Fold these 2 entries.
Entry 1:
Amino acid sequence: MKHNLLNFTRGSQLLGHFGFMFAAGLKGPLIVTGLVAVGTCYWEVRSALSDHQIYLVWMHIYASLYAFMEFDPAKLVNLELLDGERVGLPFSIVREFPPMREAVEAFLTAVKHGLLVSAVLLIPAFVFFWWFAERFGGRSKERKHERGAMLVSLDELEEEIERHNKAFRAEELGHKFGWKWRLASSSALAEAGHYQPAHLAGVSWPWRLEQSHAMLIGTTGTGKTVALTELVAEARERGQRAVIFDLTGAFIEAFYDPARDIILNPVDVRCPLWSVFNDCTTEAEFHAAAEALVPHDGGGSEQFWVLAARMLFVEMCLHLARTGTATNEALARQLMTADLSEVHKLMRGTMADPLTAPEAARMAESIRAVFNANAKVLKLLPSSGPRFSVRDWVKGDCQAGSILFLSARYVDMSISSQLLTLWLDTAMNTLMTLERTQDLRMWFLIDELGALHRLPALEKGLQTARNFGGAIVTGVHAFAKLKEVYGENMAMTLSSLARTKLILATADRETATWCSDFIGHRQVRDMEEGYSYGYNNARDAVSLTPRRQIEPLLLPDQFMNLPRLSAYIKFPDGFPAAPVSLIPRTRGRIAEGFIAREKPLIRPGQGPAATTPQAKPGSKPNDEHPASNDDGAGKPVDLRQLKLDLEGQRRIADEPQDRQEPVPLERRNAGRAAGDLGAETRSVTHLDAGPTLPLAAVQTGEDAPAMGAEQHLSEPGTASDDAGEKDGSKPQARSAANGRQPLTPVEKDLREGAVADPPEKDFGEFEPDM
């Protein structure tokens, strides 16, 4: 009830306040209206009536008032005629005097005409005043942009870009041709090879800003491929070259021309014969290739294993180049599959010598394993066909409008990603070795940047490729994926270097917030309206208070709720952002997206039956050093798996020799119940010899021998057995006599409910807990 009373009080006070304020607002216009109406009527009356007629009008008014008051109607009134004579007429008939009636009719006509003139003047004036007051009141409260980013309509953005391009075109062509260029049409200038801005999402790029690079941000299915397809079609029409990373095969199906285009896909039949030696001729180039082929995780400093694997690859490539065996097969055979001793012989005297030394066999194998895990795709490259070099293609050994497709299916990305990274990195590095130019020389279109490994040349390309005619357009699904590949700091660097942004719908808030920051912030001034009212109307008031604040131009939720094929575009150099809509176009399929190079090795339902893998024998050691899979003493390590005999609760090997029979639990429990707790032994299975050998006899009682702090494993027939024979019985015999089987450390853990952790030492070096 109290709440309702407060609402009623507030509402009634505000209604009264607004009523008085509205009346106060109308007071001025009403006064002006009255003054104007009176003035026009007076002017019309004075213009239309003579003085005698005005006199008669006044006498008519006088007679009307006399009759209204119901005075004596027979009383005479003196009227002055037009000639000056006076005549007396009673009040009852004076208003019917013909000259007076004519004067009254003329007066009414003049008044009507004056009011009509007033209406013609006042109604537009009043409408204008109303519009002005309403607009002024609205503008006084609306947000005012003071500085920062701006959001405009698409038409406004296109008009601004058109004015900008027209001014720069006139300046550039004027320096080249003077005033004569104005005689040529735009199509003639384009046919002559003069620069024409490209288009992104149907919007023209500002003059020569394609080389400021672009980033397309949006989740799957929002329209990134649609925008890139239009860009490729325009580049093909203008004869511009492009390097396209095509993960789905959509670009190959729509644009592949066998006469001038190249497909680099290690498992595609159309892939030419490519080798790392075709693109690398110096040690620096091999180092650049190694950096792309063996990437690190993108977070922090590069690991030792990655750097060592790169060094091993570079030194092996240099050796093969010097010996004239620079082929993919030789690289795979001598580095990836050869025995470590053979690799060390090839690397002797190089910087990779200590990395492959047999003394550090395990480290060497780890380094090679890191390289093999990243470079395994080298074994899948074709060994025949036309030779191809990415460097030669970038330098111009191709037709106009040629496209280099770097392609891979999703199922092949696990083995192809490193090679695709190497090819793209090589193309970018080669471009930056050419002569500087301000003309657009080549496009780099990467639909899904996160699908590739870290591109070492990408940061350098975004920084300097514009000076060599390179324009890079990347597509990003989510900021988290970019951070995963490049690290947080580098991800921010890459996104800032791509200055043109096309932002489509995003699926996560982090990416949406990231995009909101790209569009920008602005400082605005808001007018806050406040009301005050009281019992006395003098206290009623409305106050407007200005307040400045900085806010994002677009909220993250606006990007998360964008429909597909809708986006916001933002160009550099101070151009405002604007909403755009993408229009997909159906293109004919002119080629297959993927053609397998070889048949599968195993067909479904065929192949050998599954068997238990057998242990591989150790490699043969040389005269100086043990093999890489030795235990360090020249003997192959027999990696027998340990099993637990759950019935007897003993730790045994896969194939033990002379194994003792397990003692039933009932027998051991009976011996423990009899109080015979002595002569309990601990034994461990020797992995090389097979049988379970005692380490020491841990006894309790008066004749318990002293033990050292540590017992070592003894070979069969050594002092360990002799010690047991001195007192006339073997440890196993004494344990059997006591009705109990010796407990191993694993048995103790099982009895106590613990799970034994695997030993950190090598097999055969197990030490008992004391």
Entry 2:
Amino acid sequence: MHHISHLALAASLISSALTSPVDVTGKKTVSIADIKGKKTFSVEQVLAKKQQMQAPALSMLKTYAKFSGTAPVQLKAAAAAIQAGTVQATPQNYDMSYLCPVSVGGQTLNLNFDSGSADLWVYSTLQPTSQQSGHSIYDPSKSSTSQLLVGNTWSIKYGDGSSASGNVYADKVIIGAVTATSQAVEAATSVSDSFLKDVNNDGLVGLSFSNINTVSPNQQKTFFDTVKSTLALPLWTANLKKGAPGTYDFGYIDSSKYSGKITYVDVNSASGFWQFTADGYQIGSSSTVSSSFVAIADTGTTLMYLPSSSVTAYWAQVTGSGYDKNQGGYTFPCSSTLPDFNLVVGGNKFTVPGSYMNYAQISYTTCFGGLQQNTGLSFSILGDIFLKSQFVVFSEVGGKASLGIAAMYNGTPGEDDGDEWECHAAAVQQKELETWKMINQEGGEMKVMHRREDAGVRHTDLQAAALTAASPMIAAEWLFDRYKVAVDMHKALQSPRYEYLFFAWSQSPQSIMSEFISFLPPPGLALANYDSAALHSTQSPDVPEVFRDAMSVREDVFVKEQKVALENEVDVDDARSFHWVAYASVGTSGSDGNAAMDGVTKDSATSAEHTGRKGSTAMKLPVGTIRLVPPPHPPHPQPGSSHKIDNHEGLPQDMQSGLSKTEMHDGKEAYIKLGRLSVLQPFRGLGLARLLIDAALTWASQNVDKILPPMSPAAAEQRKLELGGGVEVEDVWRGLVLVHAQAQLEKYWALFGFVKDESMGTWEEEKIMHVGMWKRVEFDSESTGGRKKSVVG
């Protein structure tokens, strides 16, 4: 079964427009019209194929050279001693190295995303063969889209004598789901030994500002500058981690990756770097020191380089530490417990845990510090030691560069946050609670998520109100009118604007077809002419709209993000399945209640829906879906097998064979199967997956006869032919549910009460490993109508 990927791409952009970058520019509101049709994507790091680390002194010397700094004499001497073989060169117990896969001219290279440089350069076949060993290389001759930029060259020369240079091509570069069709690719013809010794990567993707790009005579744009106009928002984020792969997200901010608020500071882009001013620091629980200094955020640098006063103050707190001239930096006893380091930015403190300050073990008892002096550099550098403990936003929203920092979210990966956020309802300010009223009529439960942007502070409140089963729109109108909060936008707007985002789900069977979640019974012959090789937007209008909406989500999550072949996404089970689609309603209203959202009308957006309220416009967009496949089902997949789709019917006979029973299934009991659970990236972490699962299982428990109607003689005969005869099956569903879960999401499904069936082993669907997991839904047995087993054959 396909599933949500927490590091996957996003196609719906609405919540991106409601995240903190919207209000950091002080110039304009980003509306739906601004981002309609634009993109977001996420890139997950991969473990470097070779884990080899330079000695700290050599790494530091490289940083000084990169930024044309004057390295201290002791550092130069330490590096020389290491290169001469008199000092140990390979540290132990260091953090792992992670890179990002990038397609360059159809060839995949693992590159380092570097916010401290502006060149996209790669190892290539233009280099001597001796320099190509150990790297994936770019071959321009194998790319059908490469074009030599005649007369243009690039050259990086550092103060330590290291260098790299070569020719420049325009070629197709794909990162995530975004393509730069004519990106400047700097193909190396020669690199110095210091670069060759870095076997961890195949080149760099520079993410600083284009004004320091080294191509001559025609300076080129960075990848980000090339694609930012196509993104939902012109920003990217770094969510790097210690000892684990991190992610870079482009075009949106994933609110599940940080906690608290994002603090933004202005960036001096004229320097070419993400340069800003820090306010001071705090060591452990000691007093805060107010001492401003200029720093850059650099994903291409490992250590933290700060003013000498802060560095000496830090290491003074660690017994046995000190400056080691043989190593060119501060060292300490590995047995030491290091204090936290708090950096003050924008008036807020951001903590680097003491454990992160241990860069590497350089001897049996001695470790090298992750915090070093910036002596000889023109600014301080916040490298990975800092960045791996924070969530960082690199923003150019409104044409103004800014850097955002927030505490990294430390929750359990894959954990559903709906219940946690629901508990926060009690903490909503009293003035907001006064706007809530209970609609005391019969009906189901409406769950509403509201995000408020207020002077750069993100608030998330979850409330519940009774929903009138007969008239769900009454509740929707009431919420639209009553639950709106001004976006201050740093007081820059002439008049306040209101932005709202809410989701609702009705548990009541009578109102399951509501404004916010739609239910579709098995579409049957309505899908007879569905073209599986074509996108949902091109399908016949005879295809139910709810199914087309479900496919819009599935195409974004499974086809675009998880690379499932489009023609395999619709299968034979879709026609006989029950489907649910969750929608988000998003819009704005002027302070007088009469200003509709910029550029959004029913004519300009096919998914736009007017709420009927004067002066208001709301867009209804599909953001999540799930399907329920009723019995019967083919045999369970064989452990170790591989399938294009998760339904075996219609496949060659040798692929239909599988387990007739498992440790958790006797091979006879009827069961339902949940599948195609998917939520668009910007809407994850809001509890929508839980709502969709609950919606499907609640409906199933209340509609047993619709899941498995009694078999007619003709149906029994047909089932006999399907199963080969002589097979006893139940014609009543007793609550057993199966999911084919992606193996890495086993713990996620366990949150919903599903248990792994060890006897099913693992198998491959669409090149993704899966496991079988079961759950039994409890319900009133009388609802089965007293039906009994049917014997087929």
